[in-house]
Amino acid sequence: MPGLAETEAHPTALPLSRTQPRIITGRTLVWGIAVVVVLNAWTAYCEYVVRASRLNGSHFPVALVAMVALLVLVVWPALAAVGKKEWGLRTPERRIVLLMGLIGAAIPANGLTGFMLGIIATPYYYATPENNWASFHPYIPGWIVPPDRHHAMRWFFNGLPPGEAIPWNVWWIPLFWWGSFAVAIIALCLTLSILLRRQWVEYERLSYPLVEAGMSLVAGEDDPGGRKPVWKSLLFWIGASLTLFILSWNALAWVAPLLPRINIQGSGLRLFKGAPGLTTRFNFLTIGLSYFAPQQVLGSLILGFLVCSAESGAFARVGVSFGAAGDSWTNDDVGVGWQSFGAMVVFVFWTLWQARGHLAAFFRAAWRGYDDRREMLSYRMTLLVLLVSALYVWLWLHEAGMDLSFAAMFVLMTVIGYLALGRMIAEAGYVYQRLPISPQSATVYILGVQGFSPSTMTAFAFSYSLIANGRGLFMPAVVQATRLADSARTGAHGARNEIRRVMGALAVAFAIGTTVSVLYTLYLGYTYGAYNFRVYPFSGGNYEAFGHTIRKIENPFGPDPARMGMAGIGMVIMSALVLLRYRFPGFPFHPIGFVFPFTYLTRFAVFSFFLAWAAKSLILGIGGVSLYKRTQPFFLGLAVGYALGVGVSFIVDWIFFPGAGHGIHSW
User: Fold this and answer.
1) Number of domains forming the structure of the chain
2) Is the whole-model pTM more than 0.90?
């Protein structure tokens, strides 16, 4: 495959193929749209009405695994059996459906719309004399929140009175502007991913573990990589049957309480006195998908967790405190969190430094007008969209009331976080992960809040609308999507036409997913009362965004030297780790293990990470890579059976326990 320098010299040298069938077809889009619509409706109904499991809390959501598995194992084979084989799709088409599903799954509940709708509806409804939220009200621009005209927000949280209609009209203006903001964010994520795709895929050859698991799941007889269909593997069916049985049995035990349950939820375990503990949960989605991750990055995260646990315990024993976390999306142990933040900053800049040759060639090609037909956008268009989207986000925040310097720092912290999570997805494939410090918390403790106006802090509170639990919003999904789009780099009308059509499929998934999720969430809110959802974006996170902000206004502070000092320590340690890895390729500790070692999600998932790492180490030690490859279907089956079991549990909750479901799947 020609490199970027060759593309500059011969911008049209890529051979075109006119013999292969198209990948982006009407059938592909129909299936992709169906997956996106069902994902968004199912996730909202499951979490808000049935109050069962969280379906999109991971970077490869359990709901998507279940839906794709049903298509691969049941629906598409059934269509082939009745003579509609073309509707079963070829493997490259199936990858596009998976791509659209990843984008669609980033939208509902704990993704875009849960926090966005929960937070913009909150400041008037929850305001009381005690919490002093009325001090926000003069500084809230009318175009970013729906007014509480004719009790519109009260009815959203409490449910419509009999005979009243949903007041859609109060939502259109703020939804338009928040929608434009979300478009700018996903454009920013997409162009960053395009900018680094060739460096990560072709030059560094990162493994994209979650994408590899997804491609193994959708592989058919015509898989371009030579993967065998999973349904032909006995080990796959054994793994899937095992976890499906466990979850189905436990669901049956809800209905028949005399049956003993199989405990996979585990319990809390504190390794060091004073340090936050871990959870010994058997999350088979995490175990199964983590088996595809490089052994070294799993081991490094586990070792990093142990070291940081000991450090946190030592801080507690000697009474070292760095104050409150600052918000609910920052590490519980503030010192360790800021240390990880400093490590993350160095890790991101090292990632960009490694890519300096590629980035320089990319900029030269954009300047000269060359167009590589392997990318979803031309070089020039990629840079233009990147700059315009970043500028739009910055100016949007300023128009919302945020000071320009404050907004610039916030955008910078957000981009650094997105790049860290994107690299994590490409190299490590941690199923559950979030940033050690939220961009909001990083901004206020670097700049302080003294001297910034109330309008800046009001806009700051609304910036949590796109927090997505600190999981990077669209970035993890987009990084996986650009890797999956490699399937479309040759096609019936040449690589350029097919890969650019993938951009259209991605845009369709985003537009339809957002529309369905927003409208359905509003409908459920006015029907059941959003306060009764009892989920974090509507009954906790929305309140905390303003509560944390009002405390900062009432108790202003400047830049925090203690937190900056811990960040500096993290920078030094990460610099040493990077240097050791650069000078000694066999150095056993991967630096990424020091970026996310003690996040909230790591503490929930580290036990499952350990089980996957131990199993992989044992199998590699016994039979090497050959045995590892042969056992991959079993671990993929564990994840698939678990996902289908979550679906079975939802059906049981829906029928027998509506509104009082069992949250068997979370982090």
Assistant:
1) 1
2) yes
